[in-house]
Design goal:
Shape: elongated
Helix content: 40-55%
Number of strands: 5
Radius of gyration: 22 Å
Number of helices: 12
Low-confidence stretches: none
Order of helices and strands: HHHHHHEEHHHHEEHEH
Distance between the termini: 66 Å
Mean pLDDT: 92
Structural class: alpha+beta
Largest sheet: 5 strands, antiparallel
Length: 261
């Protein structure tokens, strides 16, 4: 397992030995089963190889040790500060969309604005667990409304492909194969522009707006997580990429807050 992660990170035994302050011979003995590593050694190698906490637990168990990192239910009492932080992040981002996803990009929670973008999506795509990437690229999901579907699809698949390579996660690999099999327009050729775009926009048709909504997004994770669940959470926040999108979302929020006369 350690050798697999080392090779996935494209690190030689010597490079790992130098960064982890152990001998390359010891790394070799551990990988071939000639040496029984201590818990501390496995923790050190896992940290330097940037192995996800879930997989570090699997390595510890395979070596005969108890898991080091808990995996809490998001609704557990110990996670109440996390839920409060997520609620604050989502609420403070209104009236712009924001979602919280787990390692498979399944929806954990979302703010009101994000939910409103899913109006008209078939119920079978919104049954739990709701996978945000599937809803986005499915031909009966948001895909027909995405103006630059070919470009945005390639961006999402490229990001997912990198995650599969970095994590070796079989579930993500299966999701990639599914999404890559959806019908899609040909990938666009990159055209040279005197004013190139600084991000891949998410352009969404919104009939009641009278114009397309245009977003860019950021991804936020918990930097000091020692819990498997917490380490695998991510917040994707969408920001308006033009004044028209910002104005539409703010006006819609104002209408919802204004009581009917």
């Amino acid at each position: 397992m350690l050798r697999s992660w080392r090779e996935r990170r494209r690190v030689s035994q010597l490079e790992l030995a130098l960064t982890a302050d152990v001998s390359a011979r010891h790394i070799s003995f551990i990988e071939t089963g000639r040496s029984q590593p201590s818990r501390a050694m496995l923790d050190r190698l896992g940290e330097h190889l940037e192995i996800p906490l879930r997989d570090r637990n699997q390595i510890l168990v395979s070596a005969g040790y108890a898991p080091a990192y808990p995996e809490s239910d998001i609704d557990a009492d110990s996670m109440s500060p996390v839920r409060a932080a997520l609620d604050q992040l989502l609420a403070s981002h209104e009236p712009f969309p924001a979602v919280v996803v787990d390692r498979r990009w399944d929806l954990v929670t979302a703010n009101v604005s994000a939910g409103q973008l899913l109006d008209g999506i078939p119920a079978e795509l919104l049954g739990p667990p709701v996978n945000t990437l599937r809803v986005t690229l499915h031909p009966r999901g948001l895909a027909p409304r995405i103006v630059n579907l070919a470009e945005y699809r390639e961006h999402l698949l490229s990001r997912l492909r990198r995650l599969v390579m970095v994590t070796g996660d079989a579930d993500l690999g299966a999701l990639y194969q599914e999404l890559n099999g959806y019908p899609a327009p040909p990938a666009p050729a990159r055209a040279h522009s005197a004013t190139p775009e600084v991000f891949v926009p998410f352009r969404l048709r919104q009939p009641d707006a009278g114009h397309d909504l245009v977003f860019f997004s950021t991804i936020t994770t918990f930097g000091t997580a020692l819990d498997v669940t917490l380490a695998e959470l991510a917040v994707e926040a969408f920001f308006p990429a033009d004044a028209a999108t910002s104005a539409y979302l703010r006006e819609r929020a104002d209408r919802q807050l204004t009581p009917a006369l």
